[in-house]
Amino acid sequence: MKFLLVFDFDHTIIDENSDTWIVKCAPERKLPNGLRNSYQPGRWTEYMGRVFAYLGDNGVKEDEMKRTMTTIPFTTGMVDLLGFIGENKELFDCIIVSDSNTVFIDWILKAADFHEVFDEVFTNPAAFSSTGYLTVQNFHAHHCAKCPKNLCKRKVLKEFLDKQLERGVSYTQIVYIGDGGNDLCPVMFLKKNDIAMPRQGYTLEKKLSQLAQDLSPVQCSVLVWSSATDIMSYLKLLIKE
Q1: Confidence check: pLDDT of 216 > 80
Q2: Do the Cβ atoms of 35 and 222 come closer than 8 Å?
Q3: Is 99 annotated as a binding residue?
Q4: Whole-number Å distance between alpha carbons of 179 and 169
Q5: pLDDT at position 51, please?
Q6: Are 238 and 86 in contact (CB under 8 A)?
Q7: Coil/strand/helix, residue 126
Q8: Domains in the chain, please, with CATH?
Q9: Which residues are catalytic?
């Protein structure tokens, strides 16, 4: 009996968007209008590449970025929740599927000593170049019309589950915890026994309630959370059953 926990990162594990938080490192803590307005829908990763280039051009170094990123607050109750999952790793496999990047997530999890809680992190690959600039790439290519160009979370989840099955691992239940519009695609892939946990008041919750109103609800159960304590209460019930 094993459960798979799938976490989004921004506004789910942390209470902010890591990509917009890094702007605190910019001169006067803001971006020039031309750069801010250069974002095109579905091409966020390319936009962030330009943001990182701007920070590099302005002499923002790796250690300053790291100091800034590790001040991001975790969502209420999340520290306790991750501690609880860490203590029960024999019951829970735990992955992150995020539109952030490997450098930011790595810094934040390691600073709080939570990197051991997660079995795998699926996010856009990032690295510092020889000149000290942070660069980021699209996670993968896909053909899903619903998702941003760089990442279809359903594809990630499906490939992960297929790989686990090859290893002989199948899950009693998948619990998907997220907040954003790009979490809808993987949630629609979940089966009747699985559970989607959208964050209260965020895009995913709104989209799921819209689907229910249109009488085309998702197959899985939906349980809304406002603090990670709600998620922990559910997981405790799950392992008691």
Answers
A1: no
A2: no
A3: yes
A4: 27
A5: 97
A6: no
A7: strand
A8: 2-15+74-124+141-239 (3.40.50.1000), 19-70 (no CATH)
A9: 8, 10
Instruction: Enter the pTM of the model.
Output: 0.95
φ, ψ at 56 (rounded to 5°):
-60, -45
Measured CA to CA, the distance from residue 125 to residue 104 in angstroms comes to: 10
- How far, rounded to the nearest angstrom, does the alpha carbon of residue 156 sit from its chain's CA centroid? 12
Tokens coding 103 = 């450098």
| Spatial CA neighbour of 157 closest among 214, 204, 196, 130 | 196
Per the listing, tokens 């899950």 go with 171
162 assigned ligand-binding residue: no
**pLDDT one-digit tens code per residue, 90-128:** 999 999 999 999 999 999 999 999 999 999 999 999 999
Six-digit token string for 32: 């020039």
User: Can you tell me which residue has the tokens 């499906």?
Assistant: 158
The response to whether 8 counts as a known ligand-binding position is yes
Q: Which residue has the tokens 């406002």?
A: 226
* pLDDT above 90 for 172: yes
Confidence (pLDDT) at 173: 97
- Joined tokens for residue 213: 């109103």
